[in-house]
Amino acid sequence: MVPLLLVLLLALLLFGAGFALKALWIVAVVVLAFWLLGFLMRSTSAAGGRGRWYRW
Fold first, then answer.
1. How far is CA 48 from CA 38, 43, 44, 55, in A?
2. Which residues are CB-neighbours of 44 under 8 A, at least 6 positions away?
3. What tens digit of pLDDT does each residue of 4-56 get?
4. Residue 30 and residue 37: Cα distance in Å, rounded?
5. CA-to-CA distance for 48 and 39, rounded, in angstroms?
6. Phi and psi (nearest 5°) for 20?
């Protein structure tokens, strides 16, 4: 009985980790897309040149 419970617990942990990793990949792709849009659509300065693409 104990080995069966351990196998089920391991399967549950691996399924949860796989789902979390997939969700993190999706979040990372969305953040990358927003970063690229911000990089490509940055505003111009008063002199007509492109400003810094970062804010710090």
1. 18, 10, 6, 18
2. 50, 51
3. 888 888 888 888 888 888 888 899 999 999 888 877 776 665 555 556 655 55
4. 11
5. 17
6. -65, -40
CA 22, 25, 27 angle in degrees (round to 5)? 110
Query: CA 37 to CA 50: how far, in whole Å?
Result: 15
d(CA 18, CA 50): 42
Q: Take residue 50 and report the two structure tokens written for it.
A: 């492109």
Residue appearing with tokens 């710090």: 56
Tokens 């693409």: give the residue.
53
Q: Please give the structure tokens belonging to residue 17.
A: 């980790």
> What are the structure tokens assigned to 22, written together?
């997939």
